[in-house]
Design goal:
Subunit structure: Homodimer.
Helix content: 40-55%
Subcellular location: Cell membrane; Early endosome membrane; Endoplasmic reticulum membrane; Endosome membrane
Bound molecules: adenosine-5'-triphosphate
Strand order of the largest sheet: 6-7-8-3-9-10
Organism: Cryptolaemus montrouzieri
Distance between the termini: 77 Å
Family: Belongs to the ABC transporter superfamily. ABCB family. Heavy Metal importer (TC 3.A.1.210) subfamily.
Protein name: ATP-binding cassette sub-family B member 6
Mean pLDDT: 86
Length: about 300
Amino acid sequence: IVQLYVPLNWFGSYYRAIQKNFVDMENMFDLLKEDQEVIDAPGAGPIVVKRGTVEFNNVSFGYLPEKLILKNVTFTVPSGKTIALVGPSGSGKSTIIRLLFRFYDVETGNILVDGQNIKTVTQDSLRSAIGVVPQDTVLFNNSIRYNIKYGRLTATDADIIEAARGADIHDKILTFVDAYDTQVGERGLRLSGGEKQRVAIARTLLKAPQIVLLDEATSALDTQTERNIQESLNRMCANRTTIIVAHRLSTIIHADEILVLQDGEIMERGKHEHLIGQDGIYASMWRQQLDKDTNLISSLENSATH
Ligand code: ATP
């Protein structure tokens, strides 16, 4: 009986995970490709999240036993504060996010949310306490209304409109042929990258989680769009514990703490000004980005004058 129970239960939780979290995680984790290695502890109860404090204590982790990807990572995000993860590609930023979502269990150390070890609570309850805005949001072939409502299936039309307003996409939706009933997705109206991101923000506003994970888009949107989206993001993150995987440093100048990762280790940490003052990895990343932006601006100016 025991032998039979384990695989069935495993399959059950895998299936539920796909159903409930597929869209939340979208391209960020590509759940279907990940091995589902994690199962709920026997007798695990739901997590209770009131303040949304996140703690990583001496966390080490590797996908394969022979290679550690995160080494002794320790940080705390106090309730309502924002932490930003920066560092070169492959440094382990997304791995931190995946561990908090408990797609994998840590090798050593622990991860606490409001003081509860995430290993000891149900995955469903953990994931419903966390909102995710991925780099690239996948839409259902369904109405724009349903696509927003997915954040909380019990939401009323008034809730949906309020969320759309908060994400600054309501007015845009009213310009669509069938307004909120307009079909979107692969087989319907194709939305722009910025619009899809707003749908993800609206979903998260509806879900109203205490913790938000934000994987910043790498592909640059135009500056005005970006500035407008930033305002919606700020609204969404206000008073929520937020972890940002940042690709453009300009968006994290006001983060409460910036962690600079390299090869899975936190090499520098602190606020923007502090890190600039240290003249280390972060400062040189900052200079590089400024150079890039300056080049971009001058090439735009050149193309405008010629
Ligand atoms: P990027 O900025 O490019 O998204 P990142 O800092 O988010 O990079 P991670 O995605 O956390 O980096 O990856 C850290 C390391 O772990 C990389 O070397 C990557 O190749 C490795 N890695 C990621 N996922 C897996 C996996 N499922 N199996 C084995 N190794 C993996």
